[in-house]
Write a structure and sequence with these properties.
11% of the residues lie in helices and 58% in strands. By secondary structure, the chain is mostly beta strands.
């Protein structure tokens, strides 16, 4: 019984020290200065539902408290998070976000050089003797297929990353596939 009592006291002590170490939220409604930098710049910045303008935001006066910070670029919500805004010119009010638009591109080269190109089962375009760049695809995996005049096809699974172009070579002369990067 004594061991159980000591264990309970230790748990109570540990719990109280963990709770005491948590940072209290900032006071609400006091004057605060914030700085918000995004990469790329020129993103729309909102704090607490109010538009602050285009990034970078330098030495802007706002109200302190816990608020939602949203960064939108080219119609994409790149940041949406709760932040603490501290009164005065506190260094914790400096926010720096490196963001990426969640769209990428695929550059397709084929053999033979004239093929219909399908992305995820839908016809995208054709290679008329030159490489083809398919723009603004969602980041993630896509199946790219070339259906060529020789009645052969080739396909590859391509991983698209935000703001990057992935090179793909589809060889429908033998039915094999290669991915360059």
């Amino acid at each position: 019984m004594k061991k159980l009592y000591i264990f309970a006291l230790m748990m109570a002590f540990l719990f109280s020290s963990v709770v005491a170490d948590e940072e209290d939220p900032p006071p609400r409604g006091k004057a605060a200065t914030i700085n918000i930098v995004t990469e790329p710049p020129n993103s729309d910045v909102f704090l607490g539902g109010e538009q602050l303008g285009k990034s970078p935001i330098k030495d802007m006066q706002v109200k302190s408290g816990r608020q939602t910070l949203v960064v939108i670029d080219q119609g994409f919500e790149l940041v949406n998070k709760r932040v603490n805004i501290w009164p005065g010119n506190d260094s914790r009010n400096n926010f720096d976000f490196s963001t990426k638009i969640p769209k990428g591109h695929i550059k397709v080269t084929t053999n033979p050089t004239r093929c219909l190109i399908f992305v995820d089962g839908e016809q995208s375009d054709k290679t008329d003797g030159a490489e083809l760049v398919i723009h603004n695809l969602d980041a993630g995996d896509h199946v790219v297929r070339a259906q060529c005049n020789n009645r052969r096809s080739a396909e590859a699974l391509v991983k698209v990353k935000g703001e990057e172009t992935v090179d793909v070579f589809l060889d429908a002369s033998t039915g094999s596939k290669k991915k360059k990067r």
